[in-house]
Amino acid sequence: MSERTLRILVGKPGLDGHDRGAKIIARAFRDAGFEVIYTGLHQTPEQIISAAIQEDVDAVGLSILSGAHNALLPRVCQLLKDKGADDIVVFGGGVIPDDDIPGLKSAGVSEVFTPGTSTEDIVKWVRENVTPRA
Amino acid sequence: MSLAHRILGGDLRAAARLMRDLDDGFRSAVEEMKLLYPHTGRAFILGITGPPGAGKSTLVDQLTAAYRQRGSRVGVVAIDPTSPFTGGAILGDRIRMNRHAEDPGVFIRSLATRGHMGGLSRSTGDVVNVMDAMGMDVVIIETVGVGQDEIDIVRMAHTTVVVSVPGLGDDIQAIKAGVLEIADLFVVNKADREGADRTARELASMLEMKQTKPGDWQPNVLLTEASRNRGIVEMVDEIEVHRRHLIESGALERIREERNARQFMDLLKERLFAEVYDHIRVNGRFREIIEEMAARRTDPYSAVELIITERFAGHRTPSP
What we know:
The complex is a heterodimer of chains A (134) and B (320).
Chain A: E1 7-11, H1 20-31, E2 35-38, H2 45-54, E3 59-64, H3 69-82, E4 89-94, H4 101-106, E5 111-113, H5 119-129
Parallel strand pairs in A: 1-2, 1-3, 3-4, 4-5
Helix pairs in contact in A: 1-5, 2-3
Chain B: H1 3-8, H2 12-23, H3 27-36, E1 44-49, H4 56-69, E2 74-80, E3 89-91, E4 106-112, H5 124-133, E5 138-142, H6 153-156, E6 159-164, E7 185-188, H7 196-208, E8 220-223, H8 232-249, H9 251-282, H10 285-294, H11 300-312
Parallel strand pairs in B: 1-5, 1-6, 2-4, 2-5, 6-7, 7-8
């Protein structure tokens, strides 16, 4: 059997137009040897999960700076569940207050990275927590 | 239930998974492709190629919308390069196309080249076949940004569009061999830019120099502005004219036959190589040969002849 290459979707749901962080993460994942599907700005949760399914990704990483994380991240998790695709790991990053993190995790978000997290730490977390689905 | 049966029943996750298995080189994918093969051969395959930054993804996005308006189901295979240093890739073609993500009549898949030369990934042909079996009427392949010599697309697509943009070079660039010879249609995109008419004229005059026989297809040069959806209807019309030409002239049958023959030969090469190489790697002959070559006791030419004889002696079928 050949080995799987890890595939990750990096997306920007919602209305904020700052994707520098998302691009830095995409680049760090590329340098870690992953295949990154970058879907660009202003995506709806529906568009993101359709892309995740068509691309057969192992994880979806979402960058949110707009403050709408409490709406958008659980919505993505719910839609994946509805499609029977909740084996896809969801993680998020951005300006997210610590108080919001437990609620996001109970909604199905596996990890939340706040400002100041190094790309090395995020790559390390992915390697430890995302395995290519069999 | 097998992935193939689920795919034929319309299961998108199964299709996405088989594409992954094909890309990752899983043996099980071969069994699935055997089941899907009878359901392939119906889709029209359109290739879009051109240099990086020419606007290929934006064109593919507009073409997808135009074909959807005409009632066709559309598959898109978009290829981006793999980093030669890390093996990773950023597949960004979807940025321009993801408005179609929710349309059940569209399926988009991004592939990384994974070291394959020629503008496509090794898995492209099989992924196209999966989309064909899914019932896509048109499958659009977007190559990586190409230079002058990555022309695998012409062996995969029924109609090949070469996208150019103003200001890439003088007219001698346009008469070089390679990418410019494979076009069934030229598109000068970003036609609002200065020099677009000149680029189109230079391409047209290059085409006039070409020796043609009566009945041969004559590629046209069209101007588009994909980001503003200008020239797209004319582009699809011209693609459809070419498609009819392929059907009426019998060229489509020839293209399909050539593609079948090539696929068979590629698989045969791959399997024969694996058959021999796996054997000598396991039994130690491979190491021996490399060592004997280092000592100049044998040469690679004699070693290959010897290995072939060893492996296939006794297996020869009598000549008819």
